[in-house]
Amino acid sequence: MPANSPPQAPVALITGAGRRFGFTLAKALLAEGYQVFAHYHTSRDGIAELEQLGAVGLAANLADLNQVLALAEQLKQHTQRLDLLVNNASCFFNNATVDDQLDHLTAVLNVHTAAPYLLIRELAPLLRQSQNQQAMVLNITDIYVDSPATDYIAYCAAKAGLASLTQAFAKHLAPHIRVNAIQPGPILFLPEHDSEHRRKVLAQTPLKVEGGLEPMLAAVRFLRDNPYVTGESIKVDGGRALNI
């Protein structure tokens, strides 16, 4: 690149970008000038809106590891570098759902652990092309990795695997690529959470409020912008992990 050429826009891949935190993060990064690649599975939810803002939508079923590899290859067709990889996609299945069909167990383990492993491995060469050695992988885990819930055993185990990957890859990919994690708590209740469930959760949360997504964005920016942090996991949970 000629010395007087303007710097290229930073590039991000976000899995599960069609809704909730993935969607909000994608919009925030687009507003900051990123080229965003927005992964989704079958539901396009907010993907069309992100595409109108300049994002590129990429479809893949992360429960199918061959599709994970194909997603990495798709990205390589679009860009020669990557600055931020966010492993955000999730499937929240309880024991009954997992026990009902083996496909559900496969999905929980692959989406949360095997798919992030493959994406980090396959996209590491692109991350190494980031300018100023500031590339980062960000894994979205859960406060339950430290105190697993007995009614979501497979989910908690898979997220704990992702937490372990965070530390292992932080050591393996240093010094050129940093790897960090965020452990969300009661950030944004699901529509199916009734008022009694919400009351109970907030009663167990020291700060007593639903966090919203802005605290998550603030945590992303801190981890991204601090060049001396790797292998770290930050709880954004209003203190709820203290009581579970």
CATH superfamily: NAD(P)-binding Rossmann-like Domain
Gap between N and C termini, in Å?
A: 52 Å
CATH fold assignment: Rossmann fold
| Beta fraction | 5-15%
Our count of domains comes out at 1
Task: Name the strands of the widest sheet in spatial order.
Answer: 3-2-1-4-5-6-7
Please identify, by name, the CATH architecture.
3-Layer(aba) Sandwich
What kind of sheet is the major sheet?
7 strands, parallel
Percent of residues in helical segments? 40-55%
**Alpha-beta content class:** alpha/beta
CATH class call: Alpha Beta
How many helices? The count is: 8
* Helix-strand pattern: EHEHEHEHHEHEHHE
- Parts with pLDDT < 50 across at least 5 consecutive residues: 1-5
The overall pLDDT average reads 93
Rg over C-alpha atoms, rounded to the nearest angstrom:
18 Å
What would the principal axes of the Cα set say about the shape?
Answer: globular
Instruction: Please provide the count of β strands.
Output: 7
Describe the structure.
- The chain is of the alpha/beta class and 244 residues long.
- It has one domain (11-243): Rossmann fold.
- The protein contains 8 helices and 7 strands, in the order βαβαβαβααβαβααβ.
- Strands 3-2-1-4-5-6-7 form a 7-stranded parallel sheet, sandwiched between helices.
- α3 runs parallel beside α5 and α5 packs parallel to α6 (153-173).
- The longest helix has 26 residues, at 102-127.
- The termini are far apart.
- Mean pLDDT is 93; it is low at 1-5.
Outline the fold blueprint.
Layout: E1 11-14, H1 20-31, E2 35-40, H2 47-52, E3 56-59, H3 65-78, E4 84-87, H4 95-100, H5 102-127, E5 135-140, H6 153-173, E6 177-184, H7 195-203, H8 214-225, E7 233-236
Parallel strand pairs: 1-2, 1-4, 2-3, 4-5, 5-6, 6-7
